[in-house]
Amino acid sequence: MKKGSKATEPDSNGIVQETPTNDVRRSDVRRGDARRKYDPEQTKRNILDVATQEFSAMGLTGARVDAIAERTNTTKRMLYYYFGSKEGLYQAVLEKVYGDIRALEQDLHISELDPVEGMRALVEFTFDYHDRQRDFVRLVTIENINGAKYVEQVKTFKGRNVTVIHTIEDLLARGIASGQFRSDIDPIDLHLMISSMCFHRVGNRHTFGTAFGRDPSHPRLRARHRAMIVDMILRYVKKED
Amino acid sequence: MKKGSKATEPDSNGIVQETPTNDVRRSDVRRGDARRKYDPEQTKRNILDVATQEFSAMGLTGARVDAIAERTNTTKRMLYYYFGSKEGLYQAVLEKVYGDIRALEQDLHISELDPVEGMRALVEFTFDYHDRQRDFVRLVTIENINGAKYVEQVKTFKGRNVTVIHTIEDLLARGIASGQFRSDIDPIDLHLMISSMCFHRVGNRHTFGTAFGRDPSHPRLRARHRAMIVDMILRYVKKED
Amino acid sequence: MKKGSKATEPDSNGIVQETPTNDVRRSDVRRGDARRKYDPEQTKRNILDVATQEFSAMGLTGARVDAIAERTNTTKRMLYYYFGSKEGLYQAVLEKVYGDIRALEQDLHISELDPVEGMRALVEFTFDYHDRQRDFVRLVTIENINGAKYVEQVKTFKGRNVTVIHTIEDLLARGIASGQFRSDIDPIDLHLMISSMCFHRVGNRHTFGTAFGRDPSHPRLRARHRAMIVDMILRYVKKED
Amino acid sequence: MKKGSKATEPDSNGIVQETPTNDVRRSDVRRGDARRKYDPEQTKRNILDVATQEFSAMGLTGARVDAIAERTNTTKRMLYYYFGSKEGLYQAVLEKVYGDIRALEQDLHISELDPVEGMRALVEFTFDYHDRQRDFVRLVTIENINGAKYVEQVKTFKGRNVTVIHTIEDLLARGIASGQFRSDIDPIDLHLMISSMCFHRVGNRHTFGTAFGRDPSHPRLRARHRAMIVDMILRYVKKED
DNA sequence: TATGAATGAGAATTCATTCAT
DNA sequence: AATGAATGAATTCTCATTCAT
């Protein structure tokens, strides 16, 4: 990588709809007063958003504090003021990104669905989530290169994952009870397989694209993969007659 | 990360049996000539081996030229002499790693097997390969963070992947002809799914381990996953009666 | 102190006769070749000499790595190349400074002198040494502000001091044996008092000068103090008739 | 010095170095008024006390404005409000510390004692003072590293020292008159020697401890040193028969 | 072919100080 | 009188790369 190439890779901007970084001032309506100069929460959020992009695009070592600061509404100094260090910021990013997922998960209410439909819903949600949250996928990848050193300190991390396992356990139990599902499946293993297929096509789409000249994020492929994974999982869990 | 902590992650030494980096000099008896003082090939290989470990452990930006040189039998200067730059070395590593795979693949002779057995053999080979070649998995991951920028220039890269697709195409065609397989499967998609499951559990084992307290590389889990993936793929490709 | 005031205090350059930093090249006569571009030992010595001045003038925190590098024949980078960090350099300076004293001490041959004369010689040597080596005095002072944190890691430190105590023990023993000295004196305590008087007038000469309008380093005062301290110590150790 | 460096009030009196810094607000009952929200004097004193510790522990450059502010009941802003700058605060600390000494000195009434007893009392006072006021000793040391730049501006500084000299002059004169003391002693020189021995063992106790494995502030050593210094000075000033 | 010394351009971090409320 | 947020200018340290031998 040559000196000075600070530009973010084009693909990394992904879908970060939830936090419109730039037009924040307009949302500054609390207490009825107009735009305020000092708003720590906003400053922090702004830094976090930019950092999320940079880290997810460049990795922990590849990211440049200067680059982050530059694209921020404030200065590098504030970044240290609020997050202490590059690593502290990186960890805060991880924390935020993992936190974001939780909210969505809760809305699924899978336990109210029939086992087969529930399983389908779960796979589709997992697929859609990874497909849309590329930053999340990249950050997880980066963490694995770091040996998960930082994610271990993220309190919310373990909790979140346990939730998914409980959902799967519940689905399997009900499916077995109703005679629809096999009884020899380990929920964590199943989760791993679902994740694998949803994660890999996003995380490794560059080498995949290079190898086969196909972009897995193309809408048509996207739909086909979605159906395929659902199909594969359902065939696997269903009891053979 | 504290200052000076340049140490490689402990886990990264993994399974790199194939390349005994250190006692190279003793093996210097090839082609009948006695041990020579200067052996360019040897030096290059030594550098490459060390670099493979460092890059796979730390990523492209995370890797340190100094760290590589230090663990080498030679000096930093030679590294530049032979590979021109850090990036050049990285690319040479990619090239070597992909080259290594080819040999193995040829030995499978899948085309001589019955479709079902061939498919099983292919999945098992893919599984075993990823399970053993952690460096390979890591390097692919790293390449994806780099947007596959470097792997594109690796000549052997595309070729290798096309081969796999041909193998799958052949299996599917024969399976369809014999009435054993479904006829609506895209070979590249199928390859993607097989890869996903074999790759993810290795590449993301750290976050997985942190999340669920399970190490996917544990022998027992390893065996279970292997069977599970074979099972899942076979159920998927087989024609339902 | 305002930004940019990097200048050393005028008085701190004091008497650094022993290491003529600048005209080193002339001494480059080994192996008969003319001035060589690469001479690591010389580079290191050069850095050390400059660093000694800066640290002794400004303290550990007050010293600026940039300021040191600037007055060096090389660059800041080499400073890190050889000494690792600012602290590493500081410690190397301590090591050197303490090492320098040893040589001188050995030349005294106090054990060959009559107890009274030996004691006089010791005090005079101690006086002269402190009087001349202001950098040494300042560095010791600085170390005490640092809680002796760094000097503890200097291997030569303890050894050196033990030597002095042995010398005093020997003097006292012989003086007692000959009936010239009192027998109730602790050698370490005595050493402390001698040091005190030799050290304080140098180390605290600035506040002393401010308080009394007298510069203790003035030749006349210097001579008077020297005689006075000898006198005081001798009166103290001598047996009263 | 920077703009707005407001002078400290001269009445920052009281020998309160060990002042309980934290629960100051409760003691706010003076002049009969109830606890007030804002008490400038209190705030200033609080800042000064904390600053004294920090400066004496870390030196002028080593001290951190943030560190001082943090341990204060108020904020960094007030520190600048009252003292203008870091240097201004440092100077205020010096001023306070020197002011503190005066009170004690007056209580000795040395002029009423017999010359020998007076000299003993003076040495013992000097010893005890340094032994107890480590912050004072450290700050003087620090000032000497700064070339006494700041202490020069402390009005009380010179005055205090002149007083001691007068005391010594008086003692010497009376001792000479009574035939007890030698007549060839310079009072300032004598003061220097007394100070040296009392100061050094406190100021350099860290390197001393490291060198000899003895802590000079240990009660037993302390008592021995005290007697030793008195003894040494008295032997020196007394006329030999 | 091989090597230890040297380097300039960054990169992370810290510090005293000021602003807006 | 008091405060939390903000800042620019240093300051220490690192990195890929090249030079002289």
Describe this structure in words.
Four copies of one chain form a homotetramer. Chain A has 241 residues and is mainly alpha-helical. Chain A folds into two domains: 13-88, Tetracycline Repressor, domain 2; 97-237, Tetracycline Repressor, domain 2, CATH 1.10.357. In chain A, 64% of the residues lie in helices and 0% in strands. Chain A is built from ten helices and no strands. In chain A, helix 3 (76-83) crosses helix 4 (86-106), helix 4 (86-106) runs parallel beside helix 7 and helix 7 (155-177) crosses helix 8 (187-203). The longest helix of chain A is centred in the first third of the chain and has 23 residues, at 40-62. The first copy, chain A, starts with 39 loop residues before the first helix and ends with a helix. Residues 1-35 of chain A have low confidence and may be disordered. Chains A and B meet through helix 1, helix 6, helix 7, helix 8 and helix 9 of A and helix 1, helix 6, helix 7, helix 8 and helix 9 of B. The first copy, chain A, binds a DNA duplex (21 and 21 nucleotides) through residues 3-4, 36-40, 43, 64-66, 74-78, 80-81, 85-86.
